[in-house]
Automatic annotation (TrEMBL):
It comes from Aquamicrobium defluvii. This is Uncharacterized protein. One of its GO terms (molecular function) is oxidoreductase activity, acting on NAD(P)H. InterPro entries: FAD-oxidoreductase/Apoptosis, FAD/NAD-bd_sf, FAD/NAD-binding_dom, FAD/NAD-linked_Rdtase_dimer_sf, Reductase_C. Residues 105-162 form the Reductase C-terminal domain. The lineage of its organism: Bacteria, Pseudomonadati, Pseudomonadota, Alphaproteobacteria, Hyphomicrobiales. Residues 31-86 form the FAD/NAD(P)-binding domain.
Amino acid sequence: MVRRGDDFHQRIDGLSCRIPFGGLIHLPVLQREAAGFKTDRGVVVDAYLETSAPGIFAAGDIARWPDPHSGAPIRVEHWVVSERQGQAAAENMLGGRRKYTDAPFFWSRHYDMSLNYVGHAESWDAIDIDGDIAAGDYTLRYKHEGRTLAVVTMGRDIESLADEAAMEAEVAAA
């Protein structure tokens, strides 16, 4: 392994791999664009997590990818998304052609309450409420034109997992 600037560069049996340490996200937008990366509230990637610079991939907090469920380019800052995107990007760096289609997911724990969010909704025209918000046992479905874009649950972990699976099945069937 050889250190070059802010990256480590390693050659393994003819394979070259660069491992950045997050420095890219701290560069001003003009520097990122000058380096060949298209940006729009993050580094823009395609469905395979490849940037506008051929052969360069981005994953995690910095990546803005085309979400197949919502149909919008999105960026999610949560370690679950980073981990899943990292796996897909690594496969693609090694010559695979795996589209990143996982439904965005995160959770937040506050004292003894756990809030789960699956999907992505920057805008919606309706919120369906099931349960008792004050009691911390509910499901919120954020919808646009009748289609569920995101689901928030509290006290309903199994339901959240089922909604995630349904969103991913919908994309797989398309």
